[in-house]
Predict the structure.
Amino acid sequence: MKRKLLNSLLFLLFGNFCLPGFSQSTDPVLLQVANEKITKNEFVKVYEKNNIKSEKTDTKALEEYLELFTNFRLKVTEAEALGMDTVKSFRDELAGYRKQLAQPYLSDNQATDKMIQEAYEHKKYDIRASHILVRVERLASAADTLAAWNKIMQLRKRTVKGEDFAKVAIEGSEDPSAKDRVTDGRKIKGNHGDLGFFTAFDMVYPFEEAVYNAKVGEVSMPVRTDFGYHLIKLTSKTPSIGKIQLAHIMLIFPAKATLDDSLKVADSANLAYKLLQSGSDFSDVAGKFSDDASTSGKGGVLPWFGVNRLLPDFTMNIQKLKAKGDYSEPFQTMYGWHIIKLVDQKPIGSFDEEKEDIKQRIPRSDRNTEIQNTFITKTKSSYGFTQNPQALDELTKTVTDSIFTASWKIEQANNLDKNLFTIGTKTYTQADFAKQLAATQRREPKRDIAAYVYQQYTGFVNDAVNKYADSQLEAENHEFKSLINEYHDGILLFDLTDKKVWSKAVKDTVGLEQFYEKNKNTYMWETRLDASIFTVKDASITKSLKKLLKKGVTDEVVLAKFNLDSIQKVTVEHKKFPKGENTNIDALEWKPGITDLIPMADTSNAIIVIHQVVAPEPKLLNEIRGAMTADYQNFLEKEWISELRAKYPVVINHEVFNSILTAQ
């Protein structure tokens, strides 16, 4: 909430005006507040923050803004003089904002844009592919990695020579889904390496990138992912079906079905299909035939799906449906027989329509790793990254298997303090990395120590490079520096204004009451009518009600007389009515008395007792507390500004100020 308020405050201060550009060759001082000097161009840049080009700046607008800007600088000067920018809460808050604001600057925007465009191009197609997997850990030893490579290449030779890819997958793939298997006593048919249909973001990025660059029917070279090495065979690449909603009729094979059972299911599917062909409603047929209890009562309608949520046989049959309402012939899957109907379809949108969704998904996917790696590479090049591999080897030799039980001691790396790598002006030593290894070790399965240390080293380097780039943001990026300065000043302004004006006006009840007494005649009621409007819901009591009212009894007596049980026969609204608030009151002659029965719009009736005409009078504080508090805040603000202007000198160079207008 505070960030929203800060953004609004900064926008009001900096974002409502525009001016033409100015030469940077000379930049005279326009304004001096205390010891701070603000140049002409600095002021103009702030003034142009929102750059509303259609608005022409005039002298009055510029003077008003200069006044506003001067007051702003006075408040910030006062906050700094009070040391508010040195307290821990301020520094922590600013650091929190800076961390958020720095993120877009610590990434490669070109790589991101390229990744967004690529993802969109991938989304335009549905892919069907098969793979063969040879597992190898990401941190496997060189020997294990080579063994996995040799194995996957042998499998590839078999496919290239013409062996059936599915057969090789059954025999050689280490993906368990490729083979027939038994799970919980149930036999599950293997997919023979067939991954079905998928699209962008459905697979890990290296796999996706490789398959979208492949040619249909060809077997790829090995592709490395965190799972191991893959051979990929692209089966089909078709235009995307986007998001789709189906209705289905599903006839399930019974458990341990015999051939006769399967034929009976097929006969039922064919009968359902004939009914559809004869004109029967799909919903009725689904309700009668479908074994899917969750949808049969709803016309067989399924939730919206993407291609990756559908069985391949479903997708291939969907591709045959051309229009909403079309339905398929019966087709068989491992679960039984199906008939599907196209209910609705949402095709892939234009790039502009899909861009934001893709942009939001990238940080949550492994594509972000690719983008960050690009940023790291560019940053290393920009700041002259150098490293000492021999120093890393020396440190690696001190690490033992104890690191996998979180018991490795940093003392084992004593006397190792050579430079490990340098980024910009920052150098990291063997000791720095050893401390990181010791601090982050945890219990985990044993693996190749050299591979493990190198992985930790890579992360350590990347973190150091990011930190260095972060540390240089203000020096390297004027836009970022200005943004941080705005938040720095905005937080100070917010906190001090809250203390001196906003919260003070709410908490200072004595001061508010004194302000009210001095200014209450500014808040006057017009002439009002003091009246009671009695609404009568039971017409039979109107005569007795009017008779009682003529005696001058109080409203409370009237209500007690007629509302004897839970049914309210009479209600009353007693107040001082100004003109324009109530049409019945406005229609009366404003003089004391009792009206006749007045018909109301809701079939009830009303009798109005006019007590007196109330002359104009000040509104009570409780009646205008919100408006009075706002005015009190404005009063406190003006007093505070007067004090600040008396405390800190303000000097305006009017010649420079006039030059801003003449430059248009």
